[in-house]
Specification:
Layout: H1 2-28, H2 36-41, H3 49-63, H4 71-77, H5 82-94, E1 99-104, E2 111-116, H6 118-138, H7 150-158, H8 164-175, H9 181-193, H10 199-211, H11 217-236
Antiparallel strand pairs: 1-2
């Protein structure tokens, strides 16, 4: 009886040692650093949950020193097929959230590729700037007063001064169509998310929202997200 009791005690100690080793391995595995602003704002950028999870894993690989994980490596971590991963990566690059850079290793002289997530952060910074403008508009500030005006935000997004036609279009949106500033800025953000920074494209977005009786930014974001998910679903059923 005594020997059996001691054997059980030793087994419990062995289990505890194994658990301690596993906990130590978990702690030594490190953590992936992700911007909280990105986690809070990716929905506004019209990124799906699946796309955001893929981005998180790309960040994780980068922080582990792997700048260009293979499809097989990504497939091992994500609940997606190889084909789904290819389509999602293509969509992220086409939409301007992700790029592939080439560089030459100075030690070996070999050419390598790496995923570049800077476009994603550029989109995030622009969206946050537009959010600031929308908040100022909601507080009742004059849209054409000061550097944070509606016109200035469009020039900042376009990276150039607005043409007379573009300024006239913005004036029509404000005075004739009576679109709120926050809705106009949401349309601008939607155009940025698909890489179509054209005043006519933004006008089509606003007209579509008007047909859908959308009157505020929250409704517009929800509609755009539903539309994007439906489009992605259709794309996933089409052959490459």
């Amino acid at each position: 009886m005594l020997g059996l009791h001691r054997s059980r005690w030793y087994n419990k100690e062995g289990v505890k040692d194994d658990m301690d080793r596993q906990i130590l391995q978990l702690l030594q595995a490190g953590a992936t650093s992700i911007s909280n602003l990105l986690l809070k704002s990716y929905k506004r950028l019209s990124l799906s949950d699946e796309e955001m999870m893929l981005i998180i894993h790309l960040l994780s690989f980068q922080q582990e020193g792997n700048r260009f994980p293979t499809l097989h490596q990504l497939e091992e971590r994500l609940s997606m097929s190889n084909l789904e991963l290819v389509r999602m990566l293509q969509h992220l690059m086409k939409a301007g959230f992700l790029a592939i850079d080439e560089y030459i290793d100075p030690q070996t002289g070999l050419r390598h590729e790496s995923y570049n997530l800077e476009p994603l952060y550029e989109r995030l910074a622009a969206a946050l700037a537009l959010d600031g403008m929308a908040e100022a508009s909601a507080a009742g500030e004059e849209p054409s007063a000061g550097p944070s005006s509606l016109y200035a935000r469009f020039e900042q997004a376009f990276g150039r001064p607005l043409s007379p036609f573009e300024m006239e279009t913005l004036q029509i949106w404000k005075e004739e169509d009576r679109y709120p500033d926050e809705l106009i800025l949401t349309a601008l953000r939607e155009a940025m998310s698909v890489g179509k920074l054209y005043i006519k494209y933004i006008d089509r977005i606003l007209l579509e929202w008007q047909k859908q009786q959308i009157t505020n930014a929250e409704e517009a974001r929800a509609y755009s997200l539903r539309f994007r998910r439906l489009q992605n679903s259709r794309d996933s059923r089409q052959p490459l």
